[in-house]
Write a structure and sequence with these properties.
binds magnesium ion; 512 residues; Rossmann fold; alpha/beta; binds guanosine-5'-triphosphate
Length: 512
């Protein structure tokens, strides 16, 4: 347990003593339990953005139902559990186990006649190691902010002032930037130690393979578009980065069957003119009258699973003998899909800061319980919560990143790159923060960080610096010193995974 989580836990326990045998007790116990859980990452975005497909790609199984069905309208939690189990939690507070079976991999849940609107959430427990570090939450697609289904996602992610959000971090999918995306992201944004902000949101340019109607350079175009989004001032204020991902390609690759590989081989090895004719468009590919060895049904299956881009990429790889086995093809397609890059961003940005994200969620939830109360003990606790929130260096960094991304701090333009780097945009290792390669000699890393400390100290003390700039510089000095301490082993190194001893420490006095 980290120092921060320990401190937050103490506060929760203190609250539990004050609120013993009151209605708030259950909520407080839930806040405490949550501190010991894996990080909760919600997948959100507009209708059909590819959320469920991407979730499946991350889990490596086709669990979440895609396309039609009542279940896509329910907030669904996929969490690690000892056995396979599906629980429905109803709005009236009751719970019931639901029967389910798997149809071509996807879980089909029998809601037992309960309308989706009456279900608060569905919890699917699944014994896969992929969920051990992260609980993934599939949310219904938002259409416009006003519809019922959108409202469900909104209430989940941004429940309003009286309740804290149940997710610690959000992966937000967009096919192209749409006004709804911005208003949605903004609505669960809060500049304080709260909800979505660049630290806990990653943007995904989803269904990236479809850009440019599935031409083989689709992913390259997607990269360029994602780069543009990354620099978009509005989006920058809301998510730390934007990555292009072809979720379908990744989902199919992780669940690729031998039959599917053989069908692709058949396509690759039949006369070129037949295949070329099929590859002209998705419509031609599934046309009933098309010639070739595969039936229209088999072709439709391939198209559903790979998309036209996936097939276009796969055929030459098989033809040229670069992918002789299903396994080779799967690896290549995963590489192209961008999902590995997303996974490492999730571990790097969310996993490594689990304590901070969780501590923040817990403080927020705790504050919502205690803030409304009167009485001297509650008031004292409330002040203590504020002290922790204000004193924790990691939270100060979050606020700084927020303000910086919103253009509120007058950093000289030459400083921007370093500010982002020190705040961990390329990772939290001392080398990444110093802007050096992962295997750079420690002396070089140290020299660069020492130089950064001096740079920010000068800014802090300069009479030319505004109050905001000088305060930002003070935080960055502390950030560099923290990185130096970690470099020299004076604190535990950052470890992204659960069960490991510790993550990021801020050194002394951060909590007072
Ligand atoms: N070509 C391509 N198609 C995709 C991709 N991701 C999803 N799709 C297709 O888009 C459709 C919708 O995908 P879902 O994963 O169900 O999207 P969703 O965002 O969960 O949809 P809702 O929950 O209904 O809002 C399905 O037909 C998917 O096969 C992708 O990366 N590439
Ligand atoms: Mg879905």
């Amino acid at each position: 347990m980290t120092e921060l989580i320990g401190r937050v836990r103490q506060l929760v326990e203190q609250a539990e003593r004050i609120y013993d045998s009151t209605p708030a007790a259950t909520e407080l116990a839930a806040i405490r339990n949550r501190l010991a859980e894996p990080l909760r990452v919600a997948v959100a975005g507009r209708v059909k953005a590819g959320k469920s497909t991407l979730l499946n790609a991350l889990v490596g199984e086709q669990l979440a139902p895609t396309d039609a069905g009542e279940c896509t309208k329910i907030v669904t939690w996929y969490r690690h559990g000892p056995t396979y189990r599906v629980t429905l939690e109803l709005r009236d507070g009751s719970r019931r186990q639901a029967r389910f079976h798997r149809n071509a991999g996807a879980i089909e849940v029998d809601l037992g006649g309960v309308p989706a609107a009456e279900i608060d959430r569905m919890v699917i427990e699944w014994p896969t190691s992929r969920l051990a570090d992260m609980t993934l939450i599939d949310t219904p697609g938002i259409e416009s902010i006003s519809t019922d289904v959108s409202a469900r996602t909104m209430t989940f992610l941004a429940p309003g002032d009286e309740r804290a959000t149940d997710a610690d971090a959000v992966v937000y999918l967009m096919r192209h930037l749409h006004a709804t995306d911005l208003s949605f992201l903004e609505s669960f944004h809060d500049a304080e130690v709260a909800k979505a902000n660049p630290i806990n949101a990653i943007g995904v340019l989803s269904r990236a393979d479809e850009i440019g109607v599935g031409r083989t350079d689709a992913m390259r175009s997607a990269k360029r578009i994602a780069e543009r989004y990354r620099l978009d001032p509005k989006l920058r204020a809301l998510c730390q980065t934007v990555l292009p991902v072809a979720g379908l390609l990744a989902e199919t690759a992780t669940t690729l069957t031998e039959d599917e590989f053989r069908a692709l081989e058949t396509l690759a090895n039949q006369p070129r003119n037949e295949t070329d004719e099929l590859m002209l468009s998705a419509d031609r590919f599934i046309a009933d009258h098309a010639t070739g060895k595969l039936t229209p049904l088999e072709r439709r299956h391939l198209l559903d699973r790979f998309g036209i881009f996936g097939i276009r990429v796969a055929l030459p790889l098989i033809r040229l003998g670069r992918c002789a086995r299903a396994r080779d093809l799967a690896d290549t397609l995963i590489g192209r899909s961008g999902v590995d890059a997303l996974r490492s961003e999730l571990l790097e940005r969310f996993g490594a800061r689990r304590d901070i994200l969780q501590g923040r969620s817990a403080l927020l939830a705790l504050d919502a319980v205690v803030g409304a109360a009167t009485g001297p003990e509650a008031r004292e606790l409330s002040r203590e919560i504020e002290r922790v929130a204000a004193g924790e260096h990691a939270f100060a960094e979050i606020r700084l990143m927020n303000d910086h991304r919103r253009g509120l701090i007058p950093f000289p333009s030459g400083d921007h790159e370093m500010v982002e780097r020190l705040l961990g945009v390329h990772g939290r290792s001392p080398a990444a923060m110093a802007g050096l390669a992962p295997d750079a000699p420690p002396d070089d890393v140290r020299a660069s960080l020492v130089e950064a400390v001096e740079h920010w100290r000068r800014r802090q003390e300069s009479p030319l610096s505004t109050r905001e700039l000088s305060e930002a510089a003070r935080i960055l000095v502390r950030t560099c010193e923290g990185a130096l301490e970690r470099l020299d082993g004076r604190t535990q190194p950052a470890m992204p995974l659960r069960g490991s001893k510790m993550t990021y420490q801020t050194g002394s006095g951060a909590l007072t």
